[in-house]
Amino acid sequence: MGQKVNPNGFRIGVIRDWNTRWYAPKKDFADFLVEDHKIREFVKKKYFAANISRIGIDRAAGKISVSIFTARPGMLIGKGGAGIDAIKADIANEIGKPVNVNIMEIRDPDADAQLVAENIAAQLEKRISFRRAMKQAMQRAMQRPGVKGIKLSCAGRLGGAEIARSEGYHDGSIPLQTYKGEVLGKAKRKEGGR
């Protein structure tokens, strides 16, 4: 196996912030971590149709604040904000503590990696050709302003074949740490190395 860098850890502090922002003493740390996991699992499962990209959790002075980043905020907010109250009540029942919920809109879902992946997965479940789903997602993403490149990989029994395999496509510029070693070696040779 190659040496793989976690993509989130690689970017934290540079272009990304932590998904969970709190500090806890040693005795509370494990409980808070379990609570965060329960909140994420519950919200993602119950409101999957709302295209939720990520869930941020803040804790300060005993108050829990949950920020839900979604491509369809109207589905979560509901008429007159009734949906937000329902989400607050559901999460409070799940973890046994009162929470504050913020709904944030993702303006460009075609430029969000999580939403692009979930969209492709949903198309595969509807028996659409994996090549078509991947190429369409790449085209839509590359048309968006601010998107410099995209790299997709699909694995499993593609097209109903008897043997599993993986296929990947990429377009535009992609950070070097995601390329395979031979590409990196070529780049070093061009710079003047061996």
What does this structure look like?
The strands form two sheets. This protein has a four-stranded mixed β-sheet. A two-stranded antiparallel sheet has the order 5-6. The chain is globular and about 50 Å long. The chain has helices at 7-11, 26-46, 73-77, 82-95, 113-125, 130-142, 181-191, and strands at residues 20-21, 52-60, 63-70, 99-105, 149-156, 165-172. It is an alpha/beta fold and 194 residues long.
Give structural attributes.
194 residues, alpha/beta, GMP Synthetase, Chain A, domain 3, Ribosomal protein S3 C-terminal domain, two-stranded antiparallel sheet, 7 helices, 6 strands
Topology at a glance:
Elements (H helix, E strand, L loop, with lengths): L6 H5 L8 E2 L4 H21 L5 E9 L2 E8 L2 H5 L4 H14 L3 E7 L7 H13 L4 H13 L6 E8 L8 E8 L8 H11 L3
Parallel strand pairs: 1-2, 3-4
Antiparallel strand pairs: 2-3, 5-6
Helix pairs in contact: 2-4, 5-6
What is the highest CATH level, the class of the largest domain? Answer: Alpha Beta
Give start-end ranges of low-pLDDT stretches. 180-189
User: Helices and strands, in N-to-C order?
Assistant: HEHEEHHEHHEEH
Portion of residues in beta strands equals: 15-25%
CATH architect. name of the largest domain: 2-Layer Sandwich
Number of strands: 6
Shape from CA axes? globular
What is the count of DSSP helices, taking H or I runs of 4+ residues?
7
End-to-end gap: 25 Å
Order of strands in the sheet with the most strands? 1-2-3-4
